[in-house]
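Milestone M4 deliverable, item 7.
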Amino acid sequence: MTIDRWISRIPLDSPSAFMKQLPTLVGFGIVVLIALMPNGVPVTNWPEFVASIVLVLIATVLSLAVPWRRFAAEWAVIVPVLSLLAVGLMRLGTGSSASPFVVLTLLPFVWIASEEGRVNILIAAVGTFIVLLAPLVVDGGGGSPADIVRAFFSPVLYLIVAVVINEIAHRMRVQLRVAREAVEQQQQLLAQAVTAQDELVLNEARLKTANRLIQSIWNAVTEQSVIGTDLDGLIDVWNPGAAKMLGLTEKQVLDGKHHIIDFHDTQEIEQRLEDMDARVTTVSSVDEFSALVDTVRAGSADVRDWTYVRPDGKRVAVQVAATPRLDENGHRVGFIFVATDMTQAREFARLKDEFVGLISHELRTPLSSILGYLELMRDDDEAPLSEEQLQYLGVAERNAHRLLRLVGDLLFTAQVESGRFPLDIRDVELGSVVSASIESARPLAANAGVTIVGDLPDGPLQVRGDAVRLGQAVDNLVSNAIKFTPSGGTVTVALRADGETAVIAVSDTGIGIPAVELSRLSQRFFRASTATRNAVPGVGLGLTITKAIVTAHGGRLDIASEEGVGTSISIVLPVETPEPVTAAIPRVEVAP
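Output delivered:
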């Protein structure tokens, strides 16, 4: 058993009262044996001798029978006090001052003196004084001068001894208490250490499992290239997807010499630097790397189209997402470039646009011929048509015009998807554009039973733009509002100036659009669920075209709608825009 465990098992109030009384009981037993022996110490006073034995037995019974631990510690002193009185009676019964059994006084004396509390020093000294002085009092003050001196001098010595014993016992208790608290604290720390070790083992197992999972996922990413660099662009992370895309293994690249710029098209880097107003000539490696991470250094992720160049010269069209690489303290320590091969996607998009353009051109020619012959048939004076025939001819002509408009929309969206379409930039007075759209839509609104209301400013409101394209955008919004508004509803077309922007807002009291579908309204051929449920005609190109026109003018399209209440779509245009010959169309979706 270790010392710590031994100390922890020792109670501060041990031993028990009986264990402390046991030496006194044994001492009295020895005295009785000596007194009863033939040549032993003679008993001079049997009543007092018997009374001492009875008193010590009573003290022993009390030490056993009474649960002293339930009482205050000072009450347990009753037992040694009784034993001390028993020693005094034993002394009176066995020769008074000459009794050799005075030494028994030490046993209860030490017990009393070692108890907690300074008052026990006084109790021990007084009790000892009574035991030593009792023979002189009983004998009537007789005795030799030595006995008298001894009777008064010995209690003084006992008092000094009691002080020493009490102080030693007190310090031992303090040390034992401190030691016990230290052991308890040590045990708590040990328990915490065991718990921490168990958690550490568990976390280590979880970490190993997570590492295996991450490694499996890392090795499974073969269709995306993941390249990590330090702050200067030196590559230190190279996944299997990068090895597949660029034709170099991880061992070949992670030599501390390969830079991310080595795999980029130089012309694209220079073009990017031109866009950043950087120098084209004598460009350092750091400046070239800035073309890739300038946006990321500013605090935003950057998604951009680039071209990777393999060591064998093969070019790979990719879309690269550049993000910061952070340490455990959130400090940037490098960059991560996740590239997706866009070769097939771009080829599919090109083929799709070519197909749409081809089909549109092929449809446009026969439709123009059909409309021409329908017009000739209607206007032929030599063979006039009947009313019923003219009615049928009108239906065919309306559907042919509708199909021709659809072909025009397809051609326009093909131009949008190709990235550029022409704009004729001039000074445009928006009031006249909006008024023309309202007047053009009045017959359609009247047929649908919808009231159309114009809210125009008194003065002119001019922007720089293409009047035809802006009119087309407003026409699309107004016609959509009328289509989606039941009979008896209202469509409001408002124009207002808002700071340095002009706002054309088209609001209706129609069927509305679910909130979850607002972000998809500008996608080609997308139709809201409310439109399909209510069988509203259309192919889903109007808002796509409108969004492209507004974006080309440097504006934005704001959409707000509540199903069953109505929809409000606003064209927000800057009052002044540059004068491009053609307008680039960013491929972004309208946000609600």
